[in-house]
Amino acid sequence: MRIGIAGIAGRMGVLLASEIERAGEKLAGGTTRPGNRPPAECAGPLLVDAAALFAASDVVIDFTHAEEAVPHATLAARHGVPLVLGSSGLSPEQSRVVAESSALVPVVHAANFAPGVNLVLALAEKLAAALPAESYDAEIVEMHHRQKVDAPSGTAIAMGRAVAAGRGMTLEQAGMESGRDGHTGARATGTIGFAALRGGQVVGEHTLLFAAATEHIALTHRSFDRRSYAVGAVRAAQWIIGRKPGLYSMMDVLGMR
Fold it and tell me: Does 255 carry a binding-site annotation?
């Protein structure tokens, strides 16, 4: 299977190239920003643009930026090539275009491709269903490297959505409390709180806390190496081939729904 990588010269791109080889698949090539070149160990061709990448690939993995999600999803639909999308922080409009493209080709979009994180999300939904919002406040604390540009992280938002789903509603219906500062008043019942920490080169740490008057329950996932994301993304690329058009998640890839 020919797997293409958008952003092959980046940190994730290099790891993806390594995992594609380890999985016994073929690296179709990759794209990168002008002036960037992938390391020598990335043994696929450097393609001139994203259109050439989709034309040369059976499936494309994109871990670039939210701004690239729309053009890449559009190209995926135009070329009939499945897309594995790992960009976080998509706007409602960007998410809409990705969903429209998934009506023509299969798309796996996940905030986090690490298998462990997705297991944590499944547990978060089950815990939220069992712990009444009136008694258990949900708080999500995440920390990432100092270069990360969006907050809360996509994984933190996914945790919040899992909690809300367990309580039979959307995150928007539950309400987000993020970036508290000054005299904010008492915490509203049923809302989901977010705190974002940035510093150093932390790959990713997420803790979901259910806090009641009589007990606290904490669910934590720590990533020590970005390779876990690459492993999951290549697994998703192998899984998506032959699927019907649709918008899938890592939960689908892991057979959890």
Answer: no
pLDDT band at 138 (very low <50, low <70, confident <90, very high): very high
Q: Is 87 annotated as a binding residue?
A: yes
pLDDT tens-digit readout, 170-207: 999 999 999 888 999 999 999 999 999 999 999 999 99
Do 210 and 248 lie in one domain? The reply is no
What are the catalytic residues?
144, 148
Residue 78 sits in a domain whose CATH number is: 3.40.50.720
Report the b/e string of 33-61 with b at 16+ CB within 10 A.
eeeeebeeebebeebeebebbbebbbbbb
Q: pTM score > 0.90 for this model?
A: no
* Token representation of residue 180: 């508290």
Q: What DSSP line would sit under 58-75, residue for residue? A: SEEEE-S-HHHHHHHHHH
Q: What is the pLDDT of residues 76-100, one digit of tens each?
A: 999 999 999 998 888 999 999 999 9
Beta strands in the chain (DSSP E): 2-6, 26-31, 59-62, 83-85, 106-109, 137-144, 176-178, 192-198, 204-211, 216-223, 246-248
Does 138 lie in the same domain as 99? no
What's the domain count of the chain?
2
Residues 86 and 173 in one domain: no
- Pair type for strands 106-109 and 26-31: unpaired
Owning domain of residue 192 = 115-223
Please state, in angstroms and rounded to a whole number, the distance separating the CA atoms of residues 149 and 243.
33
Please identify which residue in the block is written with the tokens 């069992």: 130
Question: Does one domain contain both 131 and 192?
Answer: yes
In angstroms, rounded to a whole number, what is the distance separating the alpha carbons of residues 103 and 2?
Answer: 22
Whether 232 and 133 share a structural domain: no
The answer to the question of whether 145 is labelled as a binding residue is yes
